[in-house]
Amino acid sequence: MKWVQPDPKRENWYWPTEAMKARAWVSDPKIYEEAAADPVAFWAKRAEEIVWFQKWSETYVDEPYAYKWFVGGKLNLSYNSIDRHVEAGKGDKVALIWEPEPPDEPNRILTYKDLLVEVSRLANALKRLGIKKGDRVGIYLPMIPEAVIAMQACVRIGAVHTVVFSAFSAESLRDRLVDSGARLLITADGYYRRGKLIDLKPQADQALTGTKVEKVIVVRRTGHPVPMDPKRDLWYHELVSGEKDYCPAEPLDSEDLAFILYTSGTTGKPKGVMHTTGGYAVQVYTTAKWDFNLHEDDVHFCTADVGWITGHSYLNYGPLMNGVATVVYEGSPDYPDFGRMWQIIEKHKVTVYYTAPTAIRMHVKWGDEWPKKYDLSTLRVLGTVGEPINEEAWLWYFKLIGGERCPIIDTWWQTETGATCVQALPGIGPFIPTVAGRPFPGIRAKIVDAGGTPVNVGEGGYLVIEPPFPPALTRGLYGDPEKFKATYFGEFGPRLYFTKDGARMDEMGNIRITGRVDDVMNVAGHRLATAEVEDALSQHPLVSEVAVVSRPDDIKGEVPVAFVLLKAGAQPSEDLKKELIKTVDKYIGPTARPAEIYFVEDVPKTRSGKIMRRILKALVRGEPVGDITTLRNPECVEELKRLVGYKG
Ligand code: WTA
């Protein structure tokens, strides 16, 4: 795509300040054309900025379903995150700032040297427990320094981490441990959330039956007594206390598995997205550096939990590979009051703040007085991720938080892409509300129709990515190569990765994401399949059938709405609704709770008995319902319209 110099005065288009341009790693838009001319050479150049134990022999292998990057190269993610800075004499620089939720509890500050010691001790302990390269290790930890330390310790020895969000239920944890075949689990006694002490260990215990987990390492965070099985469970602090302070980083092959992260697809069963070492390291390092314009004096605050890909790439690996300080906040943004995030920014002189639109909308609702109480003048770059951002939230973020001086970097990406793929760059712009930006240099994204043909400028279509595929793009789904092919390449073949997002592009190449085109929801920035919520609700003994669809929500972006058919004899009641909510908590976690549960006699079905979720979706969204004459039971639609208060 050729760079078109747009009219600089275009309404609602914002451009970098002179100060930003001067400080930016890239400020010349020519970079887009240069990279497009030879993306493989572009990425090879980027790869030279990280440390390789052995240089790669082939930069990119373009094989269907088996693309590879930096083949033959050897490196280590943890070495690039920590050792390289220590060896460069920057060991005393702050690497991690931990902000516990209780406001009077002291921070924990780790320098790069400290981090090297902590990570080495745990890595040595893992080795002593028999964990070897390729073994899977489950991590079920709250937002404490040990979450970062544990991930780093795994990749340091070539073990494959699979992090599970600590607000996920025991059942969710079990599914992921079983699927990944994890041999060891690292968890904690508990954590603090909204001022309450929450025990985590009992849930971890419940998750273990039926898994291959032999040992459980438990971090003492709260000190609250939790059950310990003397044959299986080890206290983290006791375990690492006798270990050596240094563990050499294992030279790993560029295509060695680094981690598995489970995410929601269209079925009830989450899939294990695999990321390998070299390509992931290069794209995460480069995008963290260019998107947020990271320099060594930056203090980077990513609010995502380590259980999500954003926490992996832009709380842990990206900032650390760039040698900056990363802030880890344990708790809730409204504790002890609505000003907590702004107070953290002031206290730690945060320069980069990266959060989700749902969080921004929440702050808008809480009121301007909260951010106004704090000094936010250290901020240089603001980021958003996870869902389309609405104009009101964008402008509020830009004006009130960024003082109109900080670019808003609206980053589009996915668990599967591992790193950001579409965004504006802080030294180049433009920054346009609701528009993510252009594909990152070296990434070929385009918008096509159902037949795979590019659509015209301004027309809606499907966002796809062409080879050479981005270095960090997933290499597959754990244990299911066929599903990998079908899910991402089923529609358009092996030469177009299908993102499952709808989008449109302007004449300059700026992309506006319009949202998922499959049955995946973004609930308060959390990715969730409608089928997962259906599966959870079906576990209740009184439920006979259930259909879940999403509907837009002012704060959370989208929320699940459930239509439940009860078994004969069961009576609908408020108590039963509460029980159903509990069932969702048990099988997934509170993030998946339906905003609304309707007890119904029937749901629209095709003649072959398939539930027409499309109609239910239209009903809850007040959109046109379309043709219902081919349904087996069209009469139920009228009844449902009354029930949901349809005004379409
Ligand atoms: C959505 C999160 C609009 C999109 C990193 C994608 C976005 C899904 C944006 C992936 C954005 C992410 N604008 N939509 N800037 N970023 N999405 O795997 O629908 O949790 O497919 O990864 O979030 O969610 P995931």
List keywords for this structure.
alpha/beta, Luciferase, domain 3, seven-stranded mixed beta sheet, five-stranded parallel beta sheet, 20 helices, 23% strand
Structural summary, described in words:
The longest helix has 17 residues, at 112-128. Among the domains are: 446-518, Luciferase, Domain 3 (Luciferase, domain 3); 523-644, GMP Synthetase, Chain A, domain 3. It contains 20 helices and 32 strands. Helix 4 packs parallel to helix 11 (309-321) and helix 10 packs across helix 11 (309-321). Strands 5-4-17-16-18-19-20 form a seven-stranded mixed beta sheet, with helices on both faces. Strands 7-6-8-11-12 form a five-stranded parallel beta sheet, with helices on both faces. The model has no long low-confidence stretch (mean pLDDT 96). It starts with 17 loop residues before the first helix and ends with a helix. With 648 residues, it is of the alpha/beta class. The protein binds 5'-O-[(S)-ethoxy(hydroxy)phosphoryl]adenosine. 5'-O-[(S)-ethoxy(hydroxy)phosphoryl]adenosine binds next to helix 11, strand 20, strand 26 and strand 27.
Summarize the topology.
Blueprint: H1 18-23, H2 30-37, H3 39-47, E1 58-61, E2 68-71, E3 74-75, H4 77-90, E4 94-99, E5 108-111, H5 112-128, E6 136-140, H6 145-157, E7 160-163, H7 170-180, E8 184-188, E9 190-193, E10 196-199, H8 201-207, E11 215-219, E12 233-235, H9 236-241, E13 252-253, E14 257-263, E15 271-276, H10 278-291, E16 299-302, H11 309-321, E17 325-329, H12 340-348, E18 352-355, H13 357-366, H14 369-372, E19 381-385, H15 391-401, E20 408-411, E21 422-423, E22 438-439, E23 444-448, E24 461-466, E25 476-477, H16 481-489, E26 497-505, E27 511-516, E28 520-523, E29 526-529, H17 530-538, E30 543-553, E31 557-566, H18 574-587, E32 596-599, H19 613-621, H20 635-644
Parallel strand pairs: 4-17, 6-7, 6-8, 8-11, 11-12, 16-17, 16-18, 18-19, 19-20, 31-32
Antiparallel strand pairs: 1-2, 3-13, 4-5, 9-10, 14-15, 15-25, 21-22, 23-24, 24-26, 26-27, 28-29, 30-31
Helix pairs in contact: 2-3, 4-5, 4-6, 4-11, 5-6, 7-8, 10-11, 13-15, 19-20
The chain binds 5'-O-[(S)-ethoxy(hydroxy)phosphoryl]adenosine.
